[in-house]
Amino acid sequence: MRPAQGELDIDFVRHGDNGPASRWFNHARAGDRLQLIAPNAAFGGHGGGFEWLPPDGVRQVLLVADETATPAALGILESLSSLATPPQVQAFFEVPLRADVQHLDSYTFAKIHWLARESLPQQPYGQALLTALQSRLVISDDAPRSQDEAAQSVLRPELEQMWESAAPAHSAFYGCIACESSGVKAIRRYLIHTCGLQRETLSLMAYWCHGR
């Protein structure tokens, strides 16, 4: 956002006319009017509408996104790059094509893994992200672990929420996971049940549902 110039950049995932944002983008023309609702930078509290709220003391950040959430994740990386001492970031991005991979060499504080679905045919959405997390994710020893066995148990699918916001006041670890709904469910189970992470340290967001 460039207020002085009255300009705003927005990234879109184009997927036909079966969604309001993509439909608008496909038919928009120069000069069309658009109303935007966004947080007020002058407001001291949480303006709502976004889930990136890193806690005090965070030293390790996990970002997991498919192409629908990659613009938000890249915005997070950009915001972290402006800090004097950014946290260490592990980022896993699933995109449709190898041509969608972006080279982000300037973010030296981040280890970024790009996963192109065209190289992984026949896999469900989000499976590449889960597989990469299982083999490449490194969680620091000071990341908060759950002591509640019930919280770590695998939830029945019908009980799993589609959107959960992290709520730690102070934590060394913080994760944002946003992708297709079945991928979010599988990743949630892995991070909470297998890795033992406190669910309060994770924002888990189903951005869309395949076939719906």
Shape: globular
Strand order of the largest sheet: 3-2-1-5-6-4
Q: How large a portion of the residues is in β-strands, by DSSP E?
A: 15-25%
Identify the CATH architecture: 3-Layer(aba) Sandwich
Radius of gyration: 18 Å
Q: Can you tell me the number of structural domains?
A: 1
Number of H/I helices: 5
Task: Please estimate the helix content.
Answer: 10-25%
Class of secondary structure makeup: alpha/beta
- The chain-level mean pLDDT equals 87
Low-confidence stretches: 149-156
| Helix/strand order, N-terminal first | HEHEEHHEEHE
CATH fold-level assignment:
Rossmann fold
Give the N-terminus to C-terminus distance in angstroms: 32 Å
Please give the largest β-sheet: 6 strands, mixed
The CATH class, by name, is: Alpha Beta
**Assembly of the depicted chains:** single chain
Question: How many strand segments?
Answer: 6
Q: CATH superfamily membership, which one?
A: Nucleotide-binding domain of ferredoxin-NADP reductase (FNR) module
Commentary on this structure:
The chain is 23% helix and 18% strand. The model is unreliable at 149-156 (pLDDT under 50). The chain has 212 residues and is α/β, with parallel strands linked by helices. Helix 3 runs parallel beside helix 5. It has five helices and six strands. The protein has one domain (60-208): Nucleotide-binding domain of ferredoxin-NADP reductase (FNR) module (Rossmann fold). Strand 5 (173-180), helix 5 (181-194) and strand 6 (202-208) form a beta-alpha-beta unit. A six-stranded mixed β-sheet has the order 3-2-1-5-6-4, sandwiched between helices. It has helices at 20-27, 70-81, 127-136, 149-152, 181-194, and strands at residues 60-65, 88-95, 110-116, 163-164, 173-180, 202-208. The protein starts with 19 loop residues before the first helix and ends with a strand.
